[in-house]
Amino acid sequence: MKQKYTNHDKKLLEKVSELLCPKLCILTLLLLASCLPQGVKLNIPDCPAPSQNCYPEKYEGMGLYDTMNVDMDGYKYKLELVEGINSSDNEWHLSFVKDNHAVMTYSEDGINRCINVVRRAEHSFVYDKGINGLPDSHIGLLAIKGDKVFFSAASFENKNILKNIDGKVFATTDEITGKSELYVADYLNNQISNINVIKDTLLKFDGWSAHTTISNDGNLLVFASDRAGGHGGTDLWMVFIDKNIKFPRFYNLGSNINSECDELSPFFSNDGKRLYFASSGNATVGGYDIFYSEIDAAFYELIDGNIEDEELNKFFSKPVNLGSPINSKYDEIFPSSPGNPDDILYFSSFRNDLSNVLPEKQGGFDLYVVHKVHVDKHEEGISESGLEKSVRTPTDSITVKNDVIVSGFVYDKNTGSPVDSALINVISNKSHKSKDYFSDDYGRFEVPVKRNVEVEIMAHKNEYFFDSKRIFFDDTFVRDSSRIDFYLPEIGVIRINFPTDKYSTPYKFTLDSNGVVTGRYWLDELKMVASNIKLSLDKIDKIVLVGHTDDVGSDDYNINLSQRRVDFVINELIKLGVPQNVLFSRAAGEHEPLIRHSDESTETFRKRLRRVTMEKYFK
């Protein structure tokens, strides 16, 4: 096995510095290293001493995105930390499906996952929902074009064992750092299906291929890989997207793009004129930097599937370093853009010099954006040149009211009868301030909601559990009213689910009834549960929480595991102010399963089973 070291890595090993954590994070989390983690014993030799000779020069050129000076047209660039979706975990990449809709790849307990996000402004996003059908495995960034999606994943077809060429088992895939393959699947209405691996006979059994991007014409797939035949480290490769995509021919993009170091995270500009990527080779500001290479128009005309590798080199210019302030002494990776990268570019970085968010909401790699803003010489301040406008002019064709009136009814979920005097909480997800309203004798309610502020509306009453909706109205919503109804259940489902064998680390986001990620943090869900319980403490005799598991494992093991899960939830509720004397637990193990949907995969079904439920008992 070959351990890949860049000059950046060698410096890290020679001196403990502020760059130590980011480099170790990216080597581990992006599955770049092919050696095994400490403590794993295999019947094969240990990794040999590093042999790669990679010493990039220091880049000291000008930056291409000037945040200091205004150009002739009155524009300058602004670098910002993305709001709304960065957290204490790692946020890696935004893959834009539409102008304001992207799929974000992020880390959760060391596992890379994906979730849909919605763009509200150049620097502001909100969570939407997960993607149905993705395997519960390490997932690389998604490249979506029409009804097809390409992605990378740690092997999930048989993720229990790994064999060598003779069929001898030598490790479980959980013990291998760096194994990842490419997949192609159908994509329709947020559903992924018909997943197939893209076969690569030159990818080693512990090899790594990931970071897919598709050309705008939909004909070419470019990715990063340590497959045999490269120039050193991880290289950028290409395949044709055609009927033979499951068994394609692979092309190395050549020495103009690939160095003796690592090249990662490629991205085609929408006009097809540039290929952006990250590299630890060439001349760098520090660590991994973001570069682009100009693509000759003949590249798209001449390639017919019979070209030789060495001919590709002439279609790509020497890489151009984007320079400061995008690139820094830290690692910058995963460039992307919904439009022209010269106007707006997103990327991920470990830097910590833009800390305009709460410390507990930032950590690891975070998403940043550099975008053009227009400096208005006649007005104070800066007006954004895109989604966000700081001033509305008198020439706006449509004048909208600041508030949208949200009205509807609250119903008993079981009987369908209206629920009178239900408490309606309107909670701002930005300021976290709330305001209370009530339904009338007929179950009807009416509340004002400000535009451009995401809110959670929560309906609950003493003898019921709650129902909630997350809503957002921007200036494109021209109506001044909207209808939403709530249905209150008598038996509560805490939408907190757990990974296999885990009891104290729930999935980061809650799941809906179909097992799809909702975009709501599990702790936010538990806060609403605690609020609902405290609302009726004077009438409650007890709350019984029940822990559940999937059908894998022995009965004794699952009973014990489900008890630990329910104990975890009870302890969290106590921290949120729920009196301990009303909380009781029961371990059901696998004995009270949910009803499986007709088209539901085993993986999704088991994910839904690993849960905690609760019931109220009144005096």
Write the layout of secondary structure elements.
Blueprint: H1 7-14, H2 20-29, E1 75-81, E2 91-98, E3 101-108, E4 111-121, E5 124-127, E6 143-145, E7 148-153, E8 162-163, E9 169-171, E10 181-188, E11 191-197, E12 209-214, E13 220-225, E14 235-240, E15 251-252, E16 263-268, E17 274-279, E18 289-294, H3 298-302, H4 309-312, E19 320-321, E20 332-336, E21 344-349, E22 366-375, E23 382-384, E24 403-412, E25 423-428, E26 434-438, E27 444-450, E28 455-460, E29 467-471, E30 481-483, E31 486-488, E32 491-497, E33 509-511, E34 517-521, H5 522-535, E35 540-548, H6 555-575, E36 583-589, H7 602-609, E37 611-618
Parallel strand pairs: 24-30, 24-31, 35-36
Antiparallel strand pairs: 1-22, 2-3, 3-4, 4-5, 6-7, 7-10, 8-9, 10-11, 12-13, 13-14, 14-15, 16-17, 17-18, 18-19, 20-21, 21-22, 22-23, 24-27, 25-26, 25-28, 28-29, 32-37, 33-34, 35-37
List keywords for this structure.
globular, five-stranded antiparallel β-sheet, four-stranded antiparallel β-sheet, mainly beta, 619 residues
Could you explain the architecture of this structure?
- There is one protein chain.
- The protein is mostly beta strands and 619 residues long.
- Helix content is 11%, strand content 35%.
- It is built from seven helices and 37 strands.
- The strands form ten sheets. Strands 1, 20, 21, 22 and 23 form a five-stranded antiparallel beta sheet that branches.
- It is globular and about 80 Å long.
